[in-house]
Amino acid sequence: MSMEIPYKIYLEEKEMPSQWYNVRADMTNKPAPLLNPGTMQPITLDELKPVFCEALARQELDDTTPYIDIPEEIRSFYKMYRPSPLTRAYCLEKALDTPAHIYYKFEGNNTSGSHKLNSAIAQAYYAKQEGLKGVTTETGAGQWGTALSMACSYFDLDCQVYMVKVSYEQKPFRREVMRTYGAKVTPSPSMDTNVGRKINQEFPGTTGSLGCAISEAVEAATSQDGYRYVLGSVLSQVLLHQSIIGLETKTALDKYGIKADMIIGCAGGGSNLGGLISPFAGEMLRGEADYQIIAVEPASCPSLTRGSYRYDFCDTGKVCPLAKMYTLGSGFIPSANHAGGLRYHGMSSVVSQLYEDGYLEARSVGQTEVFQAAQQFARVEGILPAPESSHAIRVAINEALKCKETGEAKNIVFGLTGTGYFDMVAYQKFNDGDMSDYIPTDAEIEASLAKLPTV
Ligand SMILES: *Cc1c(COP(=O)(O)O)cnc(C)c1O
Q1: Residues 407-428: pLDDT tens digits?
Q2: Among 10, 260, 272, 404, which one is most buried in terms of CB atoms within 10 A?
Q3: Taking the mean position of all CA atoms in its chain, how far away is CA 95?
Q4: How much distance in Å is there from the Cα of 358 to the middle of ligand 1?
């Protein structure tokens, strides 16, 4: 007997996960430890405490506890916008004339517009628990800053966001959402921090970079009493919080007896991908099931497909701990023509180790084909996807078309991380035919990798 699968598979509140799943616990080869940039030795809890909240520092270092309780207050916040639906893409399947069954988990149903709120609320909760006054962070395009400002306003915490100056000027609407939620948004480099003043003096008129904004946010956290720094991706604690995506997905699939064949996610710093795949990768690690897992990254910032698995700095300012990860070098800056997000130079150390050990594969795609997939998806499924999410759509469509050739009815699941409402400048470029595909040369990547620290 086969059950009719609805367009949307919803979970009831009582079916929502009460614990996050820490995939590191089931990994035989653990991700390499973070290193203290001063000593180049594995970083300790005490060394992390001045920068991160203690509970989060503990989660960062914990690679043995498989399940960690989600505190009640976070669960009740999750209930305002979760569970997110798992949608059967019947309309896309029809348009592609494929025998494949396509499912997507949509994380854009909240004001911040992406999955980032899942970790922002957890990080704000622990900051509040520890009696802090506030947190500082950086934001590029603004999704993380928006999510964090929502989370901080819920817990009545001060939120200071250093926003890359070029985005501050070009994305005024993101900035206003953050201010509406009470965040203080400062264009970076600013004149408020030593590092900002120094950069402004050295490079008058600079429009800033993520690396510079990170350095300013860290300085702001460590120079104000009662403040800590928080980060929206890459870190293992963020992957842990994002496991809510994968746990809900798995529960929804199990409800209808659906076994995924393929799980696809876009990869910037690796947090949504890592969260989506965690429970599935856990089954693979324990030898219980097998899945084809695909990480999709932009051809203009190809850390998994063309980077090197080495220790590197997480930020351009080299103030954060070093992580062993697939990286293009902390000085790597993707082409200015690249409009599709996912611009981070490195990859989560958990995702990197799983990739190194063959649990997942990686593909890189060009931005024009990504926007073609975004347009096709928007027209048949109705949702205007974020450019980042559209990397996953591209590969899901490619795989569904392969199924058409072979006649296989594979179950393809992909993560749709957010909406594209704030990315209309990128869509405009695509619609005007002004989009170009820049792929870095081997020489450029080698030059950047040559500057990696020796550890
Ligand atoms: C930030 C972001 C991403 C990429 O970040 P990861 O840490 O790789 O998940 C993907 N999609 C959207 C919509 C984002 O905002």
Answers
A1: 999 999 999 999 999 899 899 9
A2: 272
A3: 29
A4: 23
